[in-house]
Write a structure and sequence with these properties.
Layout lengths: L1 E8 L5 E6 L7 E5 L4 E8 L6 E7 L6 H15 L8 E5 L5 E2 L7 H6 L1 E2 L1 H20 L2 E11 L5 E2 L2 H4 L4 H4 L9 E9 L4 E7 L17 H14 L11 E5 L6 E2 L4 E4 L21 E4 L5 H22 L2 E3 L3 E9 L4 E3 L5 E3 L5 E2 L5 E2 L2 E2 L13 H11 L4 H7 L4 E3 L14 E9 L2 E5 L3 E2 L1 H17 L6 E5 L8 E2 L2 H4 L4 H4 L7 H17 L20 E2 L18 E3 L4 E2 L4 E8 L3 H6 L6 E7 L4 E7 L5 E7 L5 E8 L7 E15 L2 E11 L3 E3 L1
Parallel strand pairs: 5-6, 12-13, 26-28, 27-29, 32-40
Antiparallel strand pairs: 1-4, 1-9, 2-3, 2-7, 3-36, 4-5, 8-30, 9-11, 9-17, 10-14, 11-12, 15-16, 18-25, 19-20, 21-24, 22-23, 25-26, 31-33, 33-37, 34-35, 34-38, 36-37, 38-39, 38-40
Helix pairs in contact: 1-3, 6-7, 10-13
Catalytic activity: an N-acylsphing-4-enine + H2O = sphing-4-enine + a fatty acid
EC number: 3.5.1.23
Pfam family, one: Ceramidse_alk_C
Length: 678
């Protein structure tokens, strides 16, 4: 094959923008723990036109808006080389990245509309990572390996899982998929290029009290792998690219100590995830660490160590033709043949009451509980008044789900949920990647993989390695099994196309697999094209006014100085007169907010040792009154740090008023005093 890899920044605005994932409007960005990246991998056939692209981006999920804009840019740059059928865009599902990059109304509610700078940085970052991979294509080889990851996940809806038939459950040793699949890439001289790992776990080690943008546990795994392979480079630099991509993580939590009542400390591992005092709002899962930062590192390190082992031992070579199959489908109207006599249908999208309950990884508002198969007259009344009552047809179609939001019947100012959804498979020789538009639960994913594998088997392509890539192309929430759907915990309430959603996807993906196996992908109907709504920027974010500094001070001045001396394990901290970090995101695509520098006696100069992509540094922004703000830079000094003289630097942009014209953006910097590490 010809193989190319690329990585590009897609962080976007780190302040004031709501973070995407927990749907908690109070969880807005207030700084940066680690940068977000898009990682792109291109595999092409040197003999013919076969070519596939897989992108994993450190974002909550790929939205339809992001995908359509990326495809538009690729087409204007490369013509017909990169298309909707051979480009897979997958989100890692971090819950600590900026939101606001959606065109469907439901997602505007918690992310304050459509936020152009957030959307642009994701679109541009994805395209740039593909550009870099495209420019770096060389002859190479691929190897696949798989193995088991321990102590890194629990099923967060075990009572739903138990609804699946006992005969089916007995075929599996666990109620989560512990298998990791690793694809290793080297050039023809054996030089290492990169890897993709697929593993099912929610990146929610950072909880909904976090305000620092970061890529969570899987992002930390990428960081560890890339730091190891790109020796001597700053984080985010170097040619080796390691993607830790999402899979069927719907009911899988990294918070391995399980759910406890925050007030009393007792377990709340019950079908309603509810506490005796305080109800569901008190039931929260705990990670393995003492705080969310430590839990993120523990889970991330586990995943990294297993991937490293599988990568080093990978010997099964992937060879064979490249192919891709794609369709757009109206998911609100699919007829599914369950058997010779039974046909069922999917529904217009709707969310159930338990959607509002959230999960043990991030509880919802107003004390809704999971497992509601009855509506609540109080909330139903409010909904009917504000949003309109669901039609009888939709109510009947979704049974036993009590509908909270009938999003498929809400069209103001735009539709609230997608109808047109991508289904897609790309095959690299014996590896088939199923690009699924949401979060399949453990058992849903098992059924889908098995169905696709048997489809390949029965059409003369036995022994395919089938992996699920999650959160691809368009976001449609969750996909549970029919049996899990009946008990209506959070994942089931969020299965928006009704009880037969999974059966519909299995039917559709079988069709794609058959087309690949029979080499007839050109005969697949394209399906109805998704809409691109004419909305460019519609936001409730505070507008960016002019920044100001306190009297007698200027931007970048130190307000609280570092101590003269630190030891490893301590935190060096400095606070500056700051400015709104959104100025930097709108001004420069790849703005670095901070540097840790060490004084080199050899060259008599300051040398950078860490930037803001490092997991040891934290950048905090807080807004004061009258356009003033403060920035604190903290460095958690790790064990093994070389003794010597260090300083912390801050780089920002402030907006200055100009009479009769638009404000101008001015770059500035600040530095702490030097301090010693002893």
């Amino acid at each position: 094959y010809l193989v190319g890899v690329g990585r590009a920044d897609c962080t976007g605005p780190v302040a004031q923008v709501p973070l995407m994932g927990y749907a908690n409007p109070d969880q807005v960005g207030g700084g940066l723990l680690s940068r977000l990246y898009s990682r792109a991998f291109i595999v092409a056939d040197p003999e013919d036109s076969g070519r596939v692209v897989f992108v994993s981006a450190d974002i909550g999920m790929v939205s339809q808006r992001v995908r359509l804009e990326v495809l538009k840019k690729l087409q204007s740059k490369y013509g017909e080389l990169y298309r909707q059928d051979n480009v897979v865009l997958s989100g890692t599902h971090t819950h600590s990245g900026p939101g606001g990059y959606f065109q469907y109304t439901l997602f505007w509610i918690t992310s304050k509309g459509l936020i152009k700078p957030a959307l642009s940085s994701i679109v541009n970052g994805i395209v740039k990572s593909i550009d870099i991979a495209h420019e770096n294509m060389k002859r190479g080889r691929l190897f696949i390996n798989r193995g088991t990851v321990e102590n890194s996940q629990i099923n967060r809806s075990p009572f739903s899982y138990l609804e699946n038939p006992a005969s089916e459950r007995s075929r599996y040793s666990s109620n989560t998929d512990k298998e990791m699949v690793v694809l290793k890439m080297v050039d023809e001289d054996g030089h290492e290029l990169g890897l993709i790992s697929w593993f099912a776990v929610h990146p929610v080690s950072m909880n909904n009290s976090n305000h620092l943008v970061n890529s969570d546990n899987v992002g930390y795994a990428s960081y560890l792998f890339e730091q190891e392979k790109n020796k001597g480079m700053l984080p985010g630099e170097g040619s080796f690219v390691a993607a830790f991509a999402s899979s069927n993580l719907g009911d899988v939590s990294p918070n391995t100590r399980g759910p406890f009542c925050a007030n009393t400390g007792e377990s709340c591992d019950n079908p309603q995830s509810s506490c005796p005092v305080g109800g569901a709002a008190m039931c929260m899962a705990k990670g393995p660490g003492n705080d969310m930062f430590e839990s993120t590192r523990i889970i991330g390190q586990n995943i990294y160590l297993k991937a490293k082992e599988l990568y080093e031992k990978a010997s099964q070579e992937v060879t064979g033709a490249l192919s891709s199959a794609h369709q757009w489908v109206n998911m609100s109207d699919v007829s599914v043949e369950l058997n010779a006599t039974h046909t069922v249908k999917t529904c217009k999208p709707a969310l159930g009451h338990s959607f509002a309950a959230g999960t043990i990884d991030g509880v919802g508002a107003f004390n809704f509980t999971q497992g509601s198969v009855e509506g609540d007259p109080f909330w139903d009344q409010i909904r009917d008044q504000l949003l309109g009552e669901p039609s009888n047809e939709t109510k009947a179609c979704h049974k036993p789900k009590p509908i909270l939001f009938s999003t498929g019947e809400m069209t103001w100012p735009h539709p609230w949920h997608p109808d047109i959804v991508d289904v897609q498979i790309v095959a690299i020789g014996s590896l088939a990647i199923l690009a699924v538009p949401g979060e399949f639960t453990t058992m849903s994913g098992r059924r889908l993989r098995e169905a696709v594998k048997s489809e390949f088997d029965s059409h003369g392509t036995p022994g395919m390695n089938v992996v699920i890539a999650g959160l691809c192309n368009v976001y449609t929430h969750y996909i549970t099994t029919y049996e899990e759907y009946q008990v209506q915990r959070y994942e089931a309430a969020s299965t928006i196309y009704g009880p037969h959603t999974l059966s519909a996807y299995i039917q559709l993906f079988r069709g794609l697999a058959k087309a690949i196996a029979l080499n007839s992908t050109q005969d697949l109907p394209r399906g109805p094209e998704p809409p691109l709504f004419n909305v460019t920027n519609l936001t409730l974010l505070p507008s960016l006014g002019a920044d100001s500094a306190p009297a007698g001070k200027t931007f970048g001045d130190v307000l609280e100085e570092v101590r003269p001396e630190y030891q490893e394990g301590e935190v060096a901290e400095v606070t500056f007169v700051g400015a709104n970090p959104r100025n930097s995101a709108e001004n420069a695509t790849e703005h670095n907010f901070l540097m840790v520098e060490r004084y080199s006696n050899i060259s008599s100069s300051w040398r950078p040792v860490l930037n803001d992509a490092s997991w040891d540094t934290r950048f905090y922004w807080s807004k004061g009154s009258g356009g003033q703000s403060r920035v604190t830079i903290a460095w958690h000094i790790p064990a093994g740090t070389e003794p010597g003289a260090y300083r912390l630097r801050y780089f920002g942009h402030y907006k200055r008023r100009v009479p009769l014209s638009r404000p101008v953006t001015v770059p500035f910097q600040g530095s702490s005093s030097a301090f010693r590490i002893t």
